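Exercise 7 asks you to align residues with tokens for two separate proteins.
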Amino acid sequence: MDRLLIRWASPEDAEDLGVIHALGWKIAYKGIIPDEVLDNITVEKRMKYFEKALKDKKEETGVLIVEDKKIGFLTLGINRDEDLDSNYGEIWGVYLLPEYWGMGFGRILMNWGI
């Protein structure tokens, strides 16, 4: 793959992360989650979430860039399993722009996160 990069996201990436997250949710969960819930997921709300989360360092997000376009991300955080201690982390989410699904980018992000 030409010019593929994964780097840690910064608050300046919040808008792109919001777009990726909102579009991914709306398409992936259509017909599974009620439309009223999906309609409430907006780029603006997700952007504000990422701005705060990245500034507060409550989670870490790696952003996947292909050919200078941000196409996906993976978010890591503390593990939420009660049977594991704080030496363990957790992959909280992997999202791609829908037009990049099925092309192996999710696997690339997962391997990077692990």
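Second protein for Exercise 7:
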Amino acid sequence: MTISMYQASVPRIVNMLINLDHLLTKAHTHVENKKWNEAALTQFRLYPDMFPLTRQVQIACDTAKGVVGRLAGTDIPAYEDNEVTIADLKQRVAKTLAYVESFTAAQIDGTEDKDIVTKRGDVETHYKGMQFLLNHAMPNLYFHVTTVYAILRHNGVELGKRDYLGKV
């Protein structure tokens, strides 16, 4: 039995982006109810050497759009990383969701053995499509969404496992 690269990617990513938006909605409500300065939450980090909430959301979105774009062999849109507010972050999630949802199974299926190269600085990492999807991209997406969840819970936002997992 083979795995559908589309089914292993796009619906899973869509689900996580919808859940991320839900987490941010609950964060906004929390900030409003507590009458907090929103930056206290958007710039919060779990540990000094970790990225703040804003950057966690940005990376989750970059990972989501990057995986489908690389698998399909299309240009990946670049975002400016200029979000400041929770509303800004929700807009980034929304445009990422629209981009991911624009892909069809025909664009993604059959990419199991596609050569994928990622670059961080001068370091290139080479993958095959399925290895990239299952061993790198999806764990990275889950990591950053989980970190958003942890930051919000640490700051008292009323969230439970269902908020992270969603209804799907």
